[in-house]
User: What shape does this take?
Amino acid sequence: MGGELRDKVASGVAWSLGEKLGTILLQMVVSIVVARLLMPDDVGLMALMTFFSSLALVVVDSGFSQMLIRKGDPAQGDYIWFVDADDFLLPNILGSLRDKTVETACDRLIVGGYQFTDCLTDEEIALSRQRKLPINSPWYDSVVWRSLLRREFLLKNGLNFRYPELTHGEDGLFMYEVGLCAPKSAEIKLALYCYREHSGSAETVVSMENRRRKIRSFVRIAEILLNYYRSGKQDSTTADKLMVFLWFALYEAAALPRKDAAAVLRQLRQKGLYPFHRPHQCTLTHAYMTRQTGWIGTILDWLCRHLHTRWGFPLMWLLQRPVQWKRRLARSVKTT
Assistant: This one.
């Protein structure tokens, strides 16, 4: 893999160099011709200056300056870290990560995660500089951004995002399949990765189309996990993830109009997922799907953990009606 990457980099640099060299030669010839017409007495000096400036531009633009500053060979990373462009990594952490992977020779290095909304506050920034942010994302086995994974381990076990139909929750399924291969794991118990939740993202935007995409993905993941469970993976991890994604699908479906919600239930019924008997291996005591607190949050969380029953989903659907009517009214007022 390293040789292939080196060949691709060398080929790209060569083509870029050739293209820029041809362009610069053409520009240099035109510049000399124009200088000869405008300043015939100084054409030699102008030609010399044009030649050196063109040569310097080729060297800088083609990437040779960066190669000289860094090193001749392209980097060959042993670990893959799936990071989001809009998230925040604590400064000067790559050395610590490298040292930990070398020390432990692990297949998976787990780092602490901190979730925040839109922007870090001044206090959070100060804590991050001291590496004292609390770890408020405990589910390292469900979120891909909390794990550095050894490339060789992934290739050996054929692990990748192999379900192109999924638009939501694919990282949770991927990390489940990583866990099935029993990676040698190590952990740094510091919040080194800050995950940003912001309005307008694929996870948070509220729209009927986005809700339908979520439901399709969650139903598909629940089906895949059910197949794993039926094939012999009858452990607490499989049971917990199966129930979580089934609850996710039903929770989102409860916000749909009656006919659409009924269509989702029919689909789940055909797959043997509704009504569903909760596996006795399931250890979940919370569903973590509502942000309500106090006694209201307790009741809603309890109801979320019973969405797979014949009475749980209809009750949640009824409770969702005032919320959906309020949102529909707000949209109509905004459009007028």
The two ends are 58 Å apart (CA to CA). Confidence is low (pLDDT under 50) at residues 1-6, 59-72.
